[in-house]
Amino acid sequence: FFWQVNDDYIKSLNMLSKKLRFAQVDPLLNASKALKDIKQELERLRKKALSKVSAYVIGIFSSMRKPGTNIQILQQNLLQKYRHLVLFLKEHGIEKYNDVCAAYVDKMNKVLSEDFRVYLEALESLKLDIGVSTDVIGYDANVVDLIPRGREQLRNHRFMFSLGERSNILKEIDQPGLVPCISEANSLKYPYEVIFRSLQKLLMDTASSEYIFIKAFFRDESMFYRVFEGPVAVIDENMKLTLANSHDAICLMLMICITKKHQLVMSNRRLPCLDTYLDKALIYLWPRFKTVFDMYIQSLYQCDAKMLWVDGTHPHHIVRCYMEFTASLIQLNAECGDGQEAGEEAKELRRYFEEKLESNLVSFVDELLMEYFGDLIKFVKNHISEDLISYTECPNIADVEPVVKNFAVKWRTALELMHNEVVTCCSNFVSGGSSLNRNLVSITSISYEIRKYSRTL
Questions:
Q1: 119: Cβ–Cβ under 8 A, 6 or more apart, which residues?
Q2: Tell me, what's the pLDDT at 5?
Q3: pTM, to two decimals
Q4: Where is the Vps52 coiled-coil domain positioned along the sequence (predicted)?
């Protein structure tokens, strides 16, 4: 009978619906003899229509399970045309309507659950593993394997502590998701936050389309949540398993930022259908991030300083890990934070490190100057007061001449050596540049005093 449900049938059904509605609401008509004569016929037509319409609609739902079916196109091009059939069921046969709703929920729940399960399995093959339980900042002989392997291993795990280009994912928040077959063909691998964004992008688009369809077709928003119980359960199970094995704090923070931005996307769409899911995702992510963050801190406490000692001028690789990780969190907080200012303790800590950096730079500059211009500095300190204005001793040509000649011969070479040492010791170009500027200022000042001193001889 599927072929008989056409436009003419729908017109006849609408006419029957009007007659049934009229017979139900008009009390005078209910008592009339004319209605009694046709009441049995109306009831027969109602039951027949209910049976036929419900079977037809459920038949369409069954076709959704066929492989390769584009559900969104089927909903828009076919089902929307028959929404009056569902309204007829809802108005004149609530039991049949409930059967149709149950059939739709059952079919779509299974179809979408399977689709997301297949997509997740395909995405898993694209995952680039970054960070395991042994890859933490510090070192403990029983649990940690990263630090003893030094800088070479650090380069291999650069993504774990450094944000770098991983932050680009936040600029692509609403871009189309990954197509696994294309990525596999090109042998591409991605950090998990890229996979997470693609999964949530598919979920958002699918949920938005489904929510709008259910609201228009069934006029019952609660059906959406029953339809998506299965897909959300599949995603939840995968997320719990992934988070339990994730030790990449940068990835976890990026996932938090992605979820917050997806909340904004759904808010802009004015669709509340994923509010609960996105809130729950954050509830999963924040505790795991704190756990991994605490592991990083604990690993620093467990460090064996003697085993980790490296005699060299480069910053220690643990320090680099810590600074890159801290800088990454600061950047992500600036992009996705809640806008709240840091507390007094954090401000005090910031001031402490700034003062510590300043004092260390001063000491570093003094040591460099003493290493390359020690004779000159000692001479100036011995013969000129601290305010660099008055002389503490009477000038002596025999004392000045070798100092000036030595300075004239080696100052250019000494500056080059100082520059190389600053670049080697200061991985941060801002701090390195500040050190070079301080050196040049000090040398210029000393040179000026020597020239002034020479003129008095």
A1: 180, 199, 202
A2: 75
A3: 0.73
A4: 4-89
